[in-house]
Amino acid sequence: xxxxxxxxxxxxxxxxxxxxxxxxxxxxxxxxxxxxxxxxxxxxxxxxxxxxxxxxxxxxxxxxxxxxxxxxxxxxxxxxxxxxxxxxxxxxxxxxxxxxxxxxxxxxxxxxxxxxxxxxxxxxxxxxxxxxxxxxxxxxxxxxxxxxxxxxxxxxxxxxxxxxxxxxxxxxxxxxxxxxxxxxxxxxxxxxxxxxxxxxxxxxxxxxxxxxxxxxxxxxxxxxxxxxxxxxxxxxxxxxxxxxxxxxxxxxxxxxxxxxxxxxx
Length: 265
Ligand code: ATR
Prior knowledge:
alpha/beta, Rossmann fold, 6-stranded mixed β-sheet
């Protein structure tokens, strides 16, 4: 039986064990996936213990993704851009780290039938959630990604940091209160919905599809998009997508995302 876990603080509400057990059942892989609560000052010791006891793969969640990034010996390019790691494994005595959030989002958008090839994308927010998805969004073929943030300097810094990794996508930064123009896809990667705050989408801003990274919370962003009659989605599909991508790294099989969206309810 292969051993997996998710480590975080808090951790009891994580849906990862349920998701990974569903993937295991669908693919016939014998595994156990548990929750690990690490003390805020005990992350490194906790993951050491997990791998010493023969664990195969570990997911990392709040607030340890940046620490995980710091501890890795080898990072994938998308984890380097994200500066955060949510998926760990060991190989030849080295600690490997990846970030599957961005590919999870891309797979979620594909499952919705929303095209990223040549798409003009607007992403709201310039925190870790945005950083985590930039490289996969660009690699999926977006022709332009505009990062809009309340604090403009943070969006500018993010674009500057990510630019060296990206060649064919045009990146730019704008202030959140100066939103306007025409986009194929708008993604809310701010933490506004998580903290119950409202975002205003002005009438000068036009878009064809709206994706909210948060899920399970009221979202004024999605409410406004729905009022315009465009297709909308919350972030449950991205949660499933990032879990599937981690599962496929560890187990070498990638279950179809569409098969697990019904786990939401
Ligand atoms: P995360 O890791 O979830 O991205 P973060 O790094 O704290 O969290 O970033 C939160 C993002 O949401 C930031 O872009 C923040 O804007 P600022 O950089 O200006 O702080 C944005 N954000 C949070 N609450 C917001 C609100 N009420 N309106 C607009 N943007 C908000």
